[in-house]
Amino acid sequence: MTNSIYPGEVFANPSDFDRGIRQLLPRYDEMLDTVVACIPPTCQTILDLGCGTGELSLKLLERFPDTRVVAVDYSPRMVGVAREKVDRAGYSDRWQAIEADFGDLATQSESTIDPVEACVSSLAIHHLSDEMKLTLFRWIASILKPGGYFWNVDPVLPETPHLDRVYRSIRENWAAKQGSTLEAVRSKIGTSVSQGHSGPDRLTTLEAHLEMLKTAGFQSIAVPWKYYGFAILGGMT
């Protein structure tokens, strides 16, 4: 197996993702649960951008039994893992996978995605350049129905060198509490190579994210959750 992976796959072996990400990132499940809690229960269709192994999709499908989830990811390996999990959970009739680069979707002259009531993304958009982040935010705003919500959970750029050290220390301590070390977890990480519009981590400050959301036309912009170097941010149309 090659160690070269798409940005966002993180681990060389996709089967390592669900356990490894919970050791690597503090409060991973709390992040996803908060995103789900911020979605109105009346949503008929939710777009999950960069669905990965389907963890956020599964939480949405479980929380909203009448909701359909359209999941987008450019990694066939991740989509395959997600599809198997969704099938096992019995949600396949309410989950649609689209194998595509969401950067491509955002730059098409006409959107191939029908309007939705909500859009979510977890740990994916930070692989875009700032210019592409803004392009993506504008596209998301354009496909959300009036009053629709967008929530994105991602790492953010540390505001100062001191906070950078603090954020790293928090992650070290978290890994230790999970019975591992960052070194051990990172030994399973593959070599990320640019794919389509995405590349290795391209972090942006929280402030810059919020400005981009405003520029893209979002209203009621909020940060409902933040834990050191990770944040949930978004707004409504």
Question: Helix and strand layout, with pairings?
Answer:
Elements (H helix, E strand, L loop, with lengths): L3 E2 L11 H8 L3 H10 L7 E5 L5 H9 L4 E6 L2 H14 L5 E5 L2 H6 L8 E7 L7 H14 E12 L5 H17 L4 H5 L4 E2 L13 H11 L2 E9 L2 E7 L1
Parallel strand pairs: 1-7, 2-3, 2-5, 3-4, 5-6
Antiparallel strand pairs: 6-9, 8-9
Helix pairs in contact: 6-9
Structural commentary:
The protein is α/β, with parallel strands linked by helices. It has a single domain (4-236), classed as 3-Layer(aba) Sandwich (Rossmann fold), CATH 3.40.50.150. It is built from nine helices and nine strands. The protein has helices spanning 17-24, 28-37, 55-63, 76-89, 102-107, 130-143, 161-177, 182-186, 206-216; strands spanning 4-5, 45-49, 68-73, 95-99, 116-122, 144-155, 191-192, 219-227, 230-236. It has a seven-stranded mixed sheet with strand order 4-3-2-5-6-9-8, sandwiched between helices. The protein has a two-stranded parallel sheet with strand order 1-7. Helix 3 (55-63) links the parallel strand 2 (45-49) and strand 3 (68-73). The longest helix has 17 residues, at 161-177.
